[in-house]
What does this fold into?
Amino acid sequence: MAGQCIVGLQWGDEAKGKLVDLLTPDVEFVVRYQGGANAGHTVVVGSEKYVLHLIPSGILYPHVKNIIGSGVVINPVTLIDEIDRLENRGISVTDRLLLSNRAHVVFPWHVAEDKLWEESNQPDDEEKIGTTQRGIGPCYRDKVGRRFAIRLGDMLQPDFRSKLNRIVEFKQRLITATGSDSVVLDANMIYEQYLAIAERLRPMIVDTTEILLNAVEQDRSILYEGAQGALLDVDHGTFPYVTSSNSSGVGVAAGAGVPLRAVSKMIGVLKSYSTRVGGGPFPTELDNPTGQLIRDRGNEYGSTTGRPRRCGWFDAVAARYTTRLSGVDTIALMMLDVLSTLPELHLCTHYELDGEMIRVFPSHVNDLRRVQPVFETLEGWREEITEVRRFDDLPPQAIDYVRRISELLDRPIEFISVGPERAQTILCRLETPVG
Ligand code: GDP
Ligand code: IMO
Ligand code: MG
It folds into this structure.
């Protein structure tokens, strides 16, 4: 399988990092293609835990080339910090990492704008997006707007300083006009800091699109690592409570710079329940002790911001939508162990909207706010399952739960995860029939 993609099908944090690390031994390239340091992908190896924000989750394996593609927005300060932390832990990064010269750069004004817009006055009845405040939205906005954008390759051009000066002058006026005098942008300081980092990164800054096109043409094995999840996709998610990139399966070709047909297998990653961090509608949310139990058992606190994640039942209406949208071939069902001990499990199979039962995921956030989830109740299982390695050894109730999800999504389940470690995985390629 030359081109595989791993994509989150909920609101992020589906345990994509664990799955990427698991599949990395068999590939030559791992490619991040959208998002930025808003992502937090966790890989656990024995007693070591690595949380990766910008660096692809294939980095722990020496044979792999890790690529940050053109569709990612890179904060060079965060990236250097991440490289240094890994190198201090004995992971060699600089010889395994390549950065697209087309990737856009996150500057301090993007972070300042992100914070200002989040904190700005808004009507009481309007829910905040609750961004990670990493400057992601403002950086993508400048990319699309073009005039105030700087790409990684621009930092190595002779006109970097003049470009930066012009942008800082404008951004300072913009930020001051919003009534904030606390943000002072010092063009000289930013220039010195970013130039020094660019010099350090210089050997890694290359035309990754050309490298990937060659790799695709030579049929080399590539694993594309999605960030966030399909319900946070800027075009197809729960807008405006989304991130600023195409985080569903539709984003991979544009973000990596490869033809659509380069991806021959799409693996959709789902938690066995739902979580969301930040604002926005969440039909199956459990704002009660059961939600808290899931949060405690799943340690559902943000990998990037530490915020408690909102928890709820598995939503098959939303997951069916994102499975179809992302062109998913097989499913990885993660964190099944978290549901152990719950006496009953609820699966949302439909929504009720204005007295009608629907299975179509509403395209407008106001409708999504009004839906009532319709649940199917399944029996839970009492025993812990973190040591189970074969599908048939799962408790019968867990088997029924997994089969029902497969049926509702009309896709085979290829992986079941029962704990954060590599070994805590059940490969069930042939064992779980479709539907
Ligand atoms: P990502 O952003 O999709 O990579 O996911 P995160 O890393 O933000 O969140 C997933 C969390 O769940 C991490 O702390 C993982 O170590 C952990 N994890 C991964 N798989 C499992 C699992 O099957 N069971 C449990 N209990 N935890 C898991
Ligand atoms: P990974 O890759 C979960 C959410 C934020 C907020 C919204 C917009 O670890 O799954 P942004 O900073 O992107 O403008 O915030 O998107 N968000 C994530 N939620 N996991 C992520 O990444 C996320 N990245 C952004 O909480 O609701
Ligand atoms: Mg995460």
